[in-house]
Amino acid sequence: MTQPDSETLILQQMATTATGQPVTDCQPLAASGSHRRYYRLTLQDHTTLIGAFNDDIAENIAFFTYTHFFEQKGLPVPHLVAIHDDNQHYLQSDLGNTTLYDFLGKNREGRSLSPEVKSYYEQVVRALPAFQLCGKEDLDFSVAYPRHAFDRQSMQWDLNYFKYYFLKLANIPFNEQKLEDDYQALMDYLLTADSDYFLYRDFQSRNIMVQDGKVFFIDYQGGRKGALQYDIASLLYDAKADLPEEFRMQLLDIYMDALSEKISLDRNAFVSYFHGFVLIRILQAMGAYGYRGYFERKNHFLQSVPYAVRNLEQLLYKMQLPIEIPELTSALRALIASDLVKPYHPSQVLTVVVQSFSFKKGVPQDPSGNGGGFVFDCRALPNPGREKQFAHNTGRDECVIQYLEKYQTVADFKHHVNAIVDAAVDNYLERRFNHLMVSFGCTGGQHRSVYFAEQLAQHLQKTYPDINIKLQHTEHPA
After folding, report:
1. Cα–Cα distance, 90 to 409 (Å, whole number)
2. One digit per residue, pLDDT tens: the chain, 478 residues?
3. Considering all CA atoms of the chain, what is the largest pairwise distance in Å, rounded to the nearest integer?
């Protein structure tokens, strides 16, 4: 895999070639549930672009193909500015930092939503049919990733995801053969729905950006052929968005009105299938929460579980399907009755203090009283402090960074440090420890130590988005 340093270099070169302007700043963006990495590039005229790296070329080609098609249809998606020949690096327009989920969180009081939130959601559900009907046009599904349709195989993957990564990890009792029989019955039913449409696949509030009163759509690279009901179910039963049930039904009516303007629609039949797709979507999401939370130990995914369980409870109360799924229903009722419905609060949040210091002033003390941690001595590495042109710079400045990164010894040192600290963080998370201190020292505490503290802090933030990073420079805080 391409290393982050070369990632940013390639993206900056692409931005300069595409715009004719140098890049004055390049900042990593917070990691998401995917393995893609994003950066915000600032150009000389202060405009910005989003740079992305993803080594899954098939996924990227799906995103590129869909984006070009949607743009041609005038749909609100990011503009692709440039694609590298390797199909792993690309640039797109910057749609800002505010997702619909972010806006929702800042504009609600408990179950009460602001008029602005409701207006954005209404925009979204009115826009959705235009995306879905692209499936009946000339959209190239041969690039769909990882499958061309939300077919039986896709459904089986999702249902097993829920079984193995949620039910089993949460110790919910069930008879496996009877559960598999119910899975087959549910899939047989859902596969009778008309599925000749574009299915966005992950149509939820974090994949919708809001900017200047308008909504824009991102992260549709998993799109494929499928039924209309799946995407509207994904949006309305997005767990942590926690929309009031009355508002969900209002949005469903608005969506069906918008859809009826484009195609003939049997509302009763639509709603019957809708409940089935709500069910399979919630199960898929809970499988993801289990995998990311119980298995990968990412706490913020576990915080979604109580909301998803409450959605299941509401769904089971009103769901009427023309099939019998007794074992699945029994497992879900056991899940609803479990402690998983309670709000999740991690008992310990790990804080990693990363700092630079000067050996002339002595090694920093650990104020937590825990002791331990790491002190890395950078004095054996090439020293920018010996170069007059760097006298007033620190390890945060690009000129010093470029100087240090010319040396293989610096890259090797960073690689070994990351591996050692990652092993400690993994162990601390497993044991529910809440404090780790990592210090980098050099002669003056200005160049090498500052550089490595900054680099480690960025690495940890990408790798462990749920931990707290406290970065401090003892000698050069600016």
Report:
1. 30
2. 344 468 899 999 999 999 999 999 998 887 665 678 999 999 999 999 999 999 999 999 999 999 999 999 999 999 999 999 999 999 999 999 999 999 998 998 877 999 999 999 999 999 999 999 999 999 999 999 999 999 999 999 999 999 999 999 888 999 999 999 999 999 999 999 999 999 999 999 999 999 999 999 999 999 999 999 999 999 999 998 999 999 999 999 999 999 999 999 999 999 989 999 999 999 999 999 988 887 776 777 888 888 899 999 999 988 989 999 999 999 999 999 887 766 655 555 788 999 999 998 888 887 666 667 899 999 999 999 899 999 889 999 999 999 999 999 999 999 999 999 998 988 887 776 788 999 999 999 999 999 999 999 999 988 888 788 989 888 765 4
3. 79
Length of the chain: 478
CA–CA distance, 146 with 410 (Å, rounded to integer): 39
Q: Which residues of 78-87 are buried (b: 16+ CB within 10 A; e: fewer)?
A: beebbbbeeb
Q: Is 105 helix (H, G, I), strand (E, B) or coil?
A: helix
Residue 31 is encoded by which pair of tokens? 């990691």
Find where tokens 């950066």 sit.
Answer: 39
Q: Which CATH superfamily is domain 100-341 in?
A: Aminoglycoside phosphotransferase (APH), C-terminal lobe (3.90.1200.10)
Residue whose tokens read 């709000």: 343
| Contact between residue 169 and residue 290 where contact means Cβ atoms under 8 Å apart | yes
For residue 191, which of 153, 157, 224, 140 has the smallest C-alpha distance? 153
Residue with tokens 């195609």: 263
pTM over the 0.90 mark? no
Which token pair is 277?
């797709």
Residue ranges per structural domain of the chain: 4-57+72-93, 100-341, 351-473
